[in-house]
Write a structure and sequence with these properties.
This protein is mostly helical and 105 residues long. The protein has a single domain (2-102), classed as Chorismate mutase (Chorismate Mutase Domain, subunit A, Up-down Bundle), CATH 1.20.59.10. It has helices at residues 2-39, 46-62, 69-89, 94-102. It starts with a helix and ends with a helix. The relative contact order is 0.11. Mean pLDDT is 90; it is low at 98-105. Its EC number is 5.4.99.5. It comes from Futiania mangrovi. InterPro entries: Chorismate_II_sf (IPR036263), Chorismate_mutase-related (IPR051331), CM_dom_sf (IPR036979), CM_II_prokaryot (IPR002701). GO terms for molecular function: chorismate mutase activity. This is chorismate mutase.
């Protein structure tokens, strides 16, 4: 049982690092918001969203992770990021949320 406890502690440590990386990602998104706002660029650019999600799935596959994991994770991460941006830019509307659901087929 001690071995399992140690392994679980390692997983907890990895999870903490994942959250730290997400925090770093969102800090960068705050900078993106400033650029997009200044240039009048919309939050949701479907081609870019697809590019990010497809890249995540390729990276996951290259690392031997379960099929679909990269896509599933990044669909959530990208959606959370878009909602974060929209909220800060005053674009968090029901129409945007509908697009978010319908736009991810």
């Amino acid at each position: 049982m001690e071995e399992l406890k140690d392994l679980r502690a390692r997983i907890d440590s990895i999870d903490t690092r994942i959250m730290d990386l997400l925090q770093e990602r969102f800090a960068t998104v705050r900078e993106v918001i400033v650029v997009k706002d200044g240039a009048g660029i919309p939050v949701r650019i479907p081609a870019r969203i697809d590019e990010v999600i497809d890249r995540a799935e390729r990276l996951a596959q290259d690392r031997g992770l379960p099929p679909g994991l990269g896509r599933a994770l990044y669909e959530h991460i990208v959606e959370a990021t878009c909602l974060f941006e929209e909220t800060r830019l005053g674009e968090d509307t029901p129409e945007n949320r509908r697009f978010a659901v319908a736009g991810r087929a």
